[in-house]
């Protein structure tokens, strides 16, 4: 009998391949191909044996497994499933697949949480992505086709999708929030549920007002209203490298709800909790700064191109240089100290830095973050055309 344990099966797989190759003499290329084929077959067989019913349809078994008691049995709906909604869903679905997949038996490091402590007791097993157009529906289906058995895409039927869900992610454009949440019956459909917003600048009070016509004075625990959570992530969620800031609610979220929110955004990167009055600045730093960093990177590449470097190689070098510097900062180094370490007397680095200082790069970048913060706060108040009505000053 073949053991179903990930550790035992890995040992069996390696032993089988080694025995087979030791008994046969093939060319080097054929040996590599055979090794890969055997490994792939063993992995597929292992997954097949781990299905609840090996005689059933594999896709149906996968869905049954993800709906097991271990991972909960509830639905998560995304209202306005655009680029960010797709990225978040993809991160969640990939993480669920990793949880369901075979894992070797291993002991956690001293002081490290066990896998069971890293995630909440209950996780979503079904998903509904809400969009308005057929083109958007096609885009979502194309991006998440591997998970089509548990992801349902609906058009212009937000209310029914929310009624079926226990957790709702609000991912529409900020100017659409009033229409989406103000739909008749939406407040009742959200009662007792968790509403997570990733809409830039939209405050919890704004969402409460859109749902109920005014900001309620009682707490959600007293009247059964939905729990509203405000979060901000960025486009790096597409590769599960986002930085997400989550607003600390008042009253605090129940432990299991907080664990679920944390787990959702850890599926796409790192997470930090901050008071709600820091959310607009966090929107600028986390949500807007990647575009600013891309501009800086593009400028460095263009400078190298002007001096004769090929564009492809210049982009590769600049990208890795920026990545290496961020890695050093993440390891605990202070940016100013890193800058000082690179500068040598009479060197090229100090010469280049002085050009940036002459161009007021430091103040300009800082001002860009400040401006993005102000714009985010105005968007949350429903002000349109903010960037076109603000005057740029040098003060």
UniProtKB/TrEMBL annotation:
The record's EC number reads 1.5.1.2
A molecular function (GO) held by this record is:
pyrroline-5-carboxylate reductase activity
Which residues does UniProt assign to the signal peptide? Answer: none
Q: Does the keyword Zinc-finger apply?
A: no
Parts of the chain that traverse the membrane = none
Q: In which pathway does it act?
A: Amino-acid biosynthesis; L-proline biosynthesis; L-proline from L-glutamate 5-semialdehyde: step 1/1
List residues of the Pyrroline-5-carboxylate reductase dimerisation domain: 278-378
Q: Which UniProt keywords apply?
A: Amino-acid biosynthesis, NADP, Oxidoreductase, Proline biosynthesis
Reaction it catalyzes = L-proline + NADP(+) = (S)-1-pyrroline-5-carboxylate + NADPH + 2 H(+)
One BP term from GO: L-proline biosynthetic process
- Pfam families xref list: F420_oxidored, P5CR_dimer
List the InterPro entries.
6-PGluconate_DH-like_C_sf, NAD(P)-bd_dom_sf, P5C_Rdtase_cat_N, P5CR-like_CS, P5CR_dimer, Pyrroline-COOH_reductase
Task: List, for all copies, the residue spans of the domain called Pyrroline-5-carboxylate reductase catalytic N-terminal.
Answer: 127-201
**What SUPFAM superfamilies would the database entry show?**
6-phosphogluconate dehydrogenase C-terminal domain-like (SSF48179), NAD(P)-binding Rossmann-fold domains (SSF51735)
Write out the similarity annotation.
Belongs to the pyrroline-5-carboxylate reductase family.
PANTHER family per UniProt: PYRROLINE-5-CARBOXYLATE REDUCTASE (PTHR11645), PYRROLINE-5-CARBOXYLATE REDUCTASE 3 (PTHR11645:SF0)
Q: Which NCBIfam families does this one have?
A: proC
Q: What is this protein called?
A: Pyrroline-5-carboxylate reductase
């Amino acid at each position: 009998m073949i053991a179903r344990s990930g550790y035992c099966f890995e040992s069996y797989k390696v032993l089988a391949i080694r025995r087979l190759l030791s008994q046969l003499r093939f060319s080097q290329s054929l040996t590599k191909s055979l090794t890969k084929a055997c490994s792939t077959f063993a992995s597929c067989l292992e997954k097949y044996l781990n299905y609840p019913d090996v005689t059933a349809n594999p896709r149906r078994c996968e869905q049954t497994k993800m709906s097991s008691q271990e991972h909960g049995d509830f639905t998560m709906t995304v209202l306005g499933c655009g680029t960010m909604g797709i990225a978040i869903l993809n991160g969640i679905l990939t993480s669920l697949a990793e949880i369901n997949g075979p894992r070797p038996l291993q002991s956690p490091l001293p002081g490290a949480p066990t896998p069971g402590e890293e995630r909440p007791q209950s996780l979503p097993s079904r998903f509904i992505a809400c969009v308005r157009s057929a083109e958007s529906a096609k885009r979502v289906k194309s991006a998440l086709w591997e998970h089509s058995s548990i992801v349902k895409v609906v058009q212009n039927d937000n209310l029914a999708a929310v009624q079926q869900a226990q957790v709702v992610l609000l991912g529409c454009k900020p100017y659409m929030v009033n229409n989406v949440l103000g739909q008749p019956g939406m407040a009742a459909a959200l009662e007792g549920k968790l509403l997570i917003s990733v809409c830039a600048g939209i405050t919890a009070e704004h969402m409460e007002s859109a749902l109920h016509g005014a900001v309620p004075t009682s707490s959600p625990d007293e009247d059964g209203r939905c729990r509203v959570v405000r979060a901000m992530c960025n486009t790096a969620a597409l590769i599960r490298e986002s930085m997400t800031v989550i607003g600390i609610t008042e009253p605090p979220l129940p432990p299991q709800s907080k664990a679920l929110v944390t787990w959702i955004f850890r599926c796409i990167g790192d997470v930090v909790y901050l008071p709600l009055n820091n959310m607009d600045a966090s929107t600028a730093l986390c949500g807007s700064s990647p575009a600013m960093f891309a501009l800086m990177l593009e400028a460095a590449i263009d400078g190298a191109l002007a001096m004769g470097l090929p564009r492809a190689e210049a982009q590769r070098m600049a990208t890795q240089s920026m990545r290496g510097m961020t890695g050093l900062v993440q390891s605990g180094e202070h940016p100013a100290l890193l800058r000082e370490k690179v500068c040598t007397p009479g060197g090229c680095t100090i010469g280049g830095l002085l050009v940036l200082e002459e161009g007021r790069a430091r103040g300009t970048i800082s001002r860009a973050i400040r401006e993005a913060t102000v714009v985010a706060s105005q968007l949350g108040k429903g002000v349109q055309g903010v960037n076109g009505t603000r005057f740029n000053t040098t003060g």
